[in-house]
Amino acid sequence: MTQSLQGRTALVTGASRGIGREIAVDLARHGAFVFCVSTREGGCDETVAACGEQGGEAVGLACDVSDEASVDALVKAVRESGRTLEILVNNAGITRDGSFLRMSTDDFDAVQNVNLRGTFFVCRAFARLLSKAEDGRIINIGSVVGQMGNPGQANYAASKAAVVGMTKSLAKELAGRQVTCNVVAPGYIQTDMTSELPDDVREWLLGSIPLHRIGTAEEVAAAVTFLAAPAARYITGQVLVVDGGMCI
After folding, report:
1. Which of 103, 119, 152, 218 is 20 to 30 A from residue 3's alpha carbon, by CA?
2. Long-range CB contacts (< 8 A, 24+ apart) of 101-105?
């Protein structure tokens, strides 16, 4: 089973750090040219350098995915590069955690604007380009929170559950254009945020995971690379959960 992406072009949003950076680096490691996207100019410099260290090629681009005009400018930059985009990974996302009864409308809307509307804007903007690839891939990053819910994350859970529904609809709409659309849903992954969890919370989390460990960003990236690879060309409309068995 091959995972070679030699000669393919990918774009990853939210690629400046964490899971997004590892996704970009793993795609580059397997041969893809990667557009690494973050909200600010130069935000992906370290990611681009890491891709180069793996023998890959990458460039950084700036885009606010919640802003249509910014997304349009991103599409223009990709078009002007002369490359045919074949792999789109929507990883950009934010959290604004808080008790549901005290959650502000602004905090609810902020999460939907990036996690859901941003994914919609980027998918819609690049769908025609991906259709020209004849083997296009859309891989949206969800979360087990969108399937299970989580106290204090009603806004985040709603956004990620909606991404799953949208992705399944896109899978049906774009199948005729030979574009597959899937979701990778991470569980608790070792990131800057989870490393700051109190010990008691961390132990509680470990107790809820059958494999009894927190996952790594590299393991999420490997799932994305699999769905981007030739071996996954007949997989669409699916949610690949990477959670150590937490959702069983």
Report:
1. 119
2. 103/154, 103/155
Which residue intervals of the chain are DSSP H helices? 18-29, 45-53, 68-80, 105-111, 118-131, 145-148, 154-174, 192-195, 199-207, 217-228
Query: Which pTM was predicted?
Result: 0.96
pLDDT in tens, 177-209: 999 999 999 999 998 767 777 888 889 889 999
User: Which pair of tokens denotes residue 61?
Assistant: 């681009």
What's the fold here for domain 9-240? Answer: Rossmann fold (3.40.50)
Provide the annotated active-site residues.
156
- Structure token pair of residue 63: 């885009």
Sheet architecture: strand order including 239-242:
57-62, 33-38, 9-12, 87-90, 136-141, 179-186, 239-242
pLDDT tens digits for range 79-134: 999 999 999 999 999 999 999 999 999 999 999 999 999 999 999 999 999 999 98
